[in-house]
Amino acid sequence: MHCVIVGASHAGVQAAVNLRAQGYEGDITLISAEKVLPYQRPPLSKAFLQDTLPEARLWLRPEAFYQQKNIRLMLDTKVVKINRSAQTVELADGQALAYDDLILATGASVRRLTIPGADLENVYYLRDHQDAASIKQALPKAQKVVVIGGGYIGLEAAASLRKMGKDVTVLINTARPLQHLTCPAISDFMTQLHQQHGVVIDTNTLAVEITGDKQVTSVIADNGTHYDADMVVAGIGVQPAHSLAADSGLNVSNGIDVNAFMQTNDEHIYAIGDCANFTHPVYHKKVRIESVQNATDQAKTVAFAICNKPAPYNALPWFWSDQYDAKLQIAGLSAGYTDVVVRQESEKSLAAFYFSGSQLIAVDTINQPKSFMVARKYLPERPELDKILLADASIPVSDIFTGAPQHA
Ligand code: FAD
Fold first, then answer.
1. Tens digit of pLDDT for each residue in 277-296?
2. What is the rounded distance in angstroms from the CA atom of residue 321 to the CA atom of residue 233?
3. Which of 227, 239, 269, 282 qualifies as a FRET site for 392, CA 20 to 30 Å off?
4. Per the domain annotation, does 252 fall within a domain?
């Protein structure tokens, strides 16, 4: 038996680890297009960028681990084609590898700017190790950084660069940061947090051109404003890396379509992590989730399926983000919420509970770990809670979830 895994990041590596943990005795080949050992991605915009995490602590597993577990790790190797009838994958050098089961853990690729000047030196993205290393190398010569994009990656990059003493301006083409991800209360909190640290946040501002000779000198916005810059970092989203699957005739929509066992429409091919599009069992809608939790949990599901112990995927999505001293923790999927309850426990601590009608569907917390923990525990039941009590920070949040009597 031979299981080939394409992509060696959070999903791919964990799939290999779980296959061995579940007693898979066949060969495992783990293929990565990247040159370095498989690594954790979240620190790239946080501790690794700030140079407070040594490279050795970035690796998901030490090199020796793969040998010990008899996992053949092929770095700097790109899979260019899947031949489904022959059950082989073709590598960029023309070599073909036969598989019994194939796991696609190809993740997502960064969306690139298409505006004039986007190809100038000192325009960076933040998706992989090489991106982060390039930014770090260029930082000593950069003081004025314009970040384009107000999602998690843009804001994390802004926080890290500001902590390193850079002058940072964030250009956001929507009315508030995290607009498509959180409610206004969370966006406002994050805006103020960045402003308190000296970051300029310009909303409703679309970058339309980057100027400079070889190097960036400014970014021009749609309202005509020129922002001086000697570095641009763009965090404008990602797209699922599903072309390999699509080219081989697998079903793809927003990512590679899979069932509850992470299996595609080919029974020998699975997809997990950022590239997988599946119907979420709690939310009953098709989603593609970009988080370490999702990649890690789907890696378990696929290993169970391949080891003939099928168990449908049923994990609740959760995610985190670190910016300055703010720890954001997110559980559930808030898209489509009808109502939000804000609970402010202190100046530095906020939670937003998202409801669909009377049912709790998601929570975003900032420095409120108890609210995160208790909501995460009960969210799969989509509990109905007293919204007035929930907003009252004098009542312990766990009492509200467990229905403990409230004292006047
Ligand atoms: P990826 O990590 O995208 O890995 C896919 C791998 O497959 C890549 O190495 C790619 O090169 C390789 N590949 C693709 N095609 C081929 C091919 N044809 N042949 C060979 N190899 C191929 N999530 C959180 O939960 N919390 C966070 O705080 C957080 N912070 C983040 C910060 C940054 C800067 C980034 C970029 C992401 C962050 N994320 C965070 C998201 C999280 O890292 C991703 O959800 C996770 O990495 C997804 O893992 P994956 O294995 O599915 O895909």
1. 999 999 999 999 999 999 99
2. 18
3. 282
4. yes
Same domain, 120 and 227: yes
Average pLDDT of the chain to the nearest whole number: 97
Q: Is the CB of 3 under 6 A from ligand 1?
A: no
For the chain, the domain total comes to 3
pLDDT tier at 357, thresholds 50, 70, 90: very high
Q: Is 27 in the pocket of ligand 1 (CB under 6 A)?
A: no
* Residues near 311 by beta carbon (within 8 Å), at least 6 away in sequence: 261, 301, 304, 305
Residue 245 Cβ < 6 Å to ligand 1: no
Longest alpha-carbon distance in the chain: 74
Ligand 1: residue of 9, 44, 300 to mutate (most ligand atoms within 8 A of CB) is 9
User: Is residue 340 classed as helix, strand or coil in its secondary structure?
Assistant: strand
Q: How confident is the model at residue 403 (pLDDT cuts 50, 70, 90)?
A: confident
- Domain of 130 in residue numbering reads as 112-234
Q: Ligand 1 centre and the CA of 231: distance in Å?
A: 24
User: What span, in angstroms and rounded, lies between the C-alpha atoms of 359 and 341?
Assistant: 12
Ligand 1 atom at minimal distance to the Cα of residue 238? 36
Q: Is the CB of 183 under 6 A from ligand 1?
A: no
Instruction: Please report, for the domain that includes residue 121, its CATH number.
Output: 3.50.50.60
pLDDT tens by residue, 314-330? 999 999 999 999 999 99
Q: What is the DSSP string of 257-319?
A: E--TTSB-SSTTEEE-GGGEEEE-TTT-SEE---SHHHHHHHHHHHHHHHTT------PPPEE
Q: Is the CB of 161 under 6 A from ligand 1?
A: no
pLDDT at res. 405:
56
- Check if 31 has its Cβ closer than 6 Å to any atom of ligand 1: yes
Atom of ligand 1 nearest to the CA of 38: 9
